[in-house]
Task: structure prediction
Amino acid sequence: MKKFLDIISEEMKKAFEAAGYDPELGKVTLSNRPDLCEFQCNGAMAGAKQYHKAPIMIANEVADKLQDSTVFSEVTAAPPGFLNLKVRENFITAYMNEMEQSDKFGLVMPDKPQKIIIDYGGPNVAKPLHVGHLRSAIIGESIKRICRYAGHDVIGDIHLGDWGLQMGLIITELKQRQPELVYFDDNYTGEYPAEAPFTISELEEIYPTASAKSKEDEAYKAAAMEATYKLQNGARGYRALWDHIIAVSVSDLKKNYANLNVEFDLWKGESDVHDIIPGMVEKMKRDGFAYESEGAWVVDVKEETDTKEIPPCMILKSDGASLYNTTDLATIQDRMETYAPDKLIYLTDKRQDLYFEQVFRCARKTGLVKDETELVHIGFGTMNGKDGKPFKTREGGVMRLENLIREINEEMSRKIHENAETKGYQIDTKEAEETARIVGLAAIKYGDLSNQASKDYIFDMDRFTSFEGDTGPYILYTIVRIKSILAKYAEQGGKLTDIVIGEAANASEKALMLELSQFHAMMEGAFEEIAPHKICAYIYDLANAFNKFYHETKILTETDDGKKAGWIALLKLTKEVLETCIELLGFSAPERM
Ligand code: ARG
Result:
């Protein structure tokens, strides 16, 4: 379907042309003065100079041509030359019914879908997930869903941190605790046990312990570096231990991400490109891009137009070890060879902005990607506490993700019981808990996604869990309200299929339709600008428009059956649009709350 604004602009363009003016002047926009009109066109003012005519005269002539328009019910020329517009009820109604009947509400699909890889999540194996990983997962998942809905071919890759010093640290600590384990016996040639010598909770305790020790004890750190080197260079026992670490950690991560409604298509990690690094580095040297600098190997990435200093991209350290950089470059090479993507999108904290600038430039310069391959880094801001500092536990420690989720769920559960009490219905603990989980996730995700990603935001438990205002629970509450009306209508014997939306009977009903008609433009914007917050802003407006209509209209007690069925059809469309949008944000609505 064509976008609503485009259709009405076309009508306006024809009128400009018919009045003898450049049709391009007929661009219609949303109204700045909703009290006066629904849409407006400022073309008469823009054309005044070109045609040496007072804008109001042009506006009057154009308005004249629209007297019998099938699109506009009202076209008023207002000084100094605005065209104030209202659309016909039957016109917007037809658009609504077409939306209802079309796949994806009539969103236009691309002629040629792009292949897009999204690199998000990025947890580090064996380290517990904390709130810092939350944003990457939440925003990345939403972007993945938006790109897919827009008709593209999308792959989400978790890009595990599974190859660095943390692995050597864990191995070193294990060796100290259980030196008798067969993994540490260099002469062992048999099969290694299938069972891991630790559980996930032990693993999560081992890493911080080892990390703390290495900061105080030089010899310990050296041992960890040595262990990392041995692991990366194929020591059998270390590889077998590493396999256990990965398996235990990944199964725990899968559980955690599933709780967040986050799903990855690929569970690749830094280790997967280990073997292609030497060849890649060799080629960069051979092609003359990489040169030696103080023992290390680097590629210059600064450009003439830079206004700030962009340091060279280091690809090998002086001890020959590879870096975070090197694995990212090799991963780009691997992704290009395996999937030939048109676009790569990375999600990390914005403190990695410069880092990705270097990596992307290096990848382009050394020919790892094609000229037309888009490389995008979305650097997000920090989630802060109410004190404006990075979010911490009450004791001041790093907040673990599961604790944060638990806190939200407890608060949600309290609110749900409270609401059931005021509404006078029974809710058992089990249902309340399940609902709290669904609504709690919406509270967290909406609280995050409603901000532009690059901005820091304050994690405000009271605000995020409120059933009122610009919050996830408010959106869900609206959906639940519609579901309940539809259910009651069905109980009264009403049919929910084959019903058509009727012409708006009042201003709030029309306002709801106009809001729905903006869906396509909003979705295009969310995809093109990679901006989930646009969906949040839209559904907040849509929920408000619906609630206004709901409060002004007695739907279920309406005696005119045709009218009632028309409203029910409009509610159904509103619900479907809201549900589609929250699905793209990565959460869902309960049956009641
Ligand atoms: N593991 C990294 C970290 O915790 C994030 C990985 C982001 N992705 C990437 N391709 N570098 O900082």
